[in-house]
Design brief:
single chain, alpha+beta, five-stranded mixed sheet
């Protein structure tokens, strides 16, 4: 894992030095505990900040400033990882090696990025009401549009039920009611509070040295207020007694099935690489048991796949089915899990799963954005391995290790989005 450098109190920098690209990227992330009372404010905040600063008061002047920096791009970010929500910005700019002689693109880009973060446009001592209203409407539209993606909607409804007593059940973007309740004054007060109390994680990937980046950021963030930092927590999702089954009816042709499982294993545990190999073998790849049996062999569904939430020890199986195949599909998904738990795994299945994972890990080096995303995953989920060590650990996973983690996987919640038509 890349060692962090604390450049200011509670502000840590991680750098990946590479000269493979003509550009560099940098992200600034304020880490917040995922709470219902602030999730919507956090989701709204960086979008409002992106509307204008004291020196560049609107999107037009900001766009011109970025154009002058060889087409530098900047955008807001709001991520959810376990019980942590992040607020911040992502930036990509031309590497100084490819700029005109003496033109320090990165330094100027960092200056503009921190201007967005620390010097917002204020009207009567708070955020511009017009900008807040615009972004409230945009965020509400985004929240309401999630129902249009029925697979995502089903998974969201399942997780909300499964994590009903856990912070992970809080929606990343908050609720429509929470967004509507925000005022320019309350959002600005929240902004001032989290600036001072949030742990800040900064990720950089590019050709500059860590020392150079540290010096640029220390200067650019010199006015960042610092106070007592809000504590953050990490925990695995506990198992519940029995399996809860929920159903919702909606007018659609293809019904959606979402099944939540607890694993007891998070990205902080040594068994995590074996869990990820199990996931790939079980439902995470086109050679997996779910794809080859539930979809291809038995034709019970249109798609079937599994994914994990690394920080919470949750595995999700999602499937698109005809409504009359509900019980058959659930039974077969659980049957394929039982086969894994009983050790009915071939070397060919294991090899295919590991190859799929290793291919994805090798592809991380092909994109600055992927590098930044993996670095964020490491920090936000407590994952201790860098991509190369992770790859070596995956290569060493054997069938007994996969069986051992499979035995810890327990069904918890089933949500069925049932279609009322089936043409």
């Amino acid at each position: 894992m890349i060692q962090p450098l604390e450049i200011l109190p509670g502000v840590r920098l991680r750098c990946v030095q590479t000269d493979r690209f003509k550009s560099s990227c940098l992200s600034i992330n304020l880490l917040r505990p995922l709470r219902k009372e602030e999730a919507a404010k956090n989701a709204l905040l960086s979008n409002v900040l992106m509307q204008g600063t004291s020196l560049h008061p609107d999107m037009q002047s900001l766009s011109l400033a970025m154009d002058e920096l060889y087409g530098t791009s900047m955008g807001p970010m709001c991520r959810k990882n376990g019980e942590i929500q992040t607020v911040g910005f992502y930036m990509s700019c031309l590497d100084d090696r490819y700029a005109l002689p003496g033109d320090r693109v990165l330094e100027r880009a960092i200056g503009l990025l921190t201007e967005l973060m620390l010097n917002p446009l204020l009207i009567d001592g708070c955020f511009c009401p017009e900008y807040v209203a615009i972004e409230q409407d945009n965020l509400i539209n985004t929240i309401e549009s999630t129902i249009n993606d029925k697979r995502t909607y089903a998974n969201s409804r399942m997780l909300k039920a499964m994590c009903r007593d856990d912070a992970f059940g809080v929606e990343r973007l908050g609720t429509v009611a929470d967004v509507e309740a925000i005022t320019p004054q309350s959002l600005y007060a929240h902004y001032r509070s989290i600036l001072a109390t949030s742990q800040v994680e900064i990720f950089y990937a590019g050709s500059q040295s860590r020392q150079t980046i540290a010096e640029l950021l220390t200067s650019a963030l010199s006015t960042l207020p610092r106070g007592a930092l809000t504590p953050l927590s990490y925990s695995a999702m506990p198992s519940h007694e029995g399996v809860q089954e929920l159903e919702e009816t909606m007018e659609l042709t293809q019904s959606k099935l979402s099944m939540g499982f607890t694993t007891g294993i998070t990205s902080r545990d040594p068994e995590y690489p074996a869990l990820m190999v199990f996931n790939a073998l079980y439902g995470g790849d086109m050679t997996s048991k779910l794809f080859m049996n539930v979809r291809e062999k038995l034709s019970l569904c249109y798609y079937a796949g599994s994914a994990t939430s690394a920080s919470k020890g949750i595995l999700i199986v999602s499937s698109g089915i005809d409504r009359e195949n509900y019980q058959k599909t659930v039974d077969e998904i659980l049957h394929q899990l039982k086969l894994c738990q009983d050790g009915q795994i071939t070397e060919e299945e294991l090899s295919a799963a590991k190859k799929a994972m290793i291919s994805s890990l090798l592809a991380l080096q092909d994109s600055l954005g992927s590098m930044e995303d993996f670095s964020a995953f490491q920090v936000l989920s407590g994952f201790p391995l860098d991509p190369e060590d992770y790859r070596k650990t995956v290569e060493a996973v054997d069938i007994p290790q996969v069986v051992a983690v499979a035995k810890q996987v327990k069904p918890d919640t089933i949500f069925f989005l049932k279609g009322v038509t089936n043409e």
